[in-house]
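Protocol step 4 of 6: structure prediction from sequence.
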Amino acid sequence: MTTIKKIDYKDTFTVRHPVLRAGRPIESCFFDGDNLETTTHFGFFVVDKLIGVISVYQNKNLIFNADNQFQIRGMAVLQEEQTQGCGKQLLERAEADCRAKNAEIIWFNAREKAVGFYQKSGYQIIGNPFEIAGIGTHYIMYKKIGQ
């Protein structure tokens, strides 16, 4: 049985760490805004095992001309569980949460290897690739979902 439910930001670390911050201190799994009331974290569970996470932040990026923007960060699925549809379901749940909050745009910094995954869900690249030190090449991606 699989479920997606809201979780505490600290619970995301068990998936963020091996997938997004392997070899780094566990403290590197805390992202600015994780503990704000406007941030929502979702976990994908198979029975009682957390295998995927996604976090949604109310955060404005000045390259977009929209007031109510949300940023996705920390999307991760345990490597042995990837390509099973969990990531797509997490993304859809995050989008539903943003729609309920009358979002105009969802945006994020996508790792180069994840761009194709997001494009399949209707996200587009804007601008040029950029490097995040110690992590790699990223692209800003977005989707208009309101107004």
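Step 5 (inspection) to follow. The CA atoms of residues 77 and 85 lie 10 Å apart.
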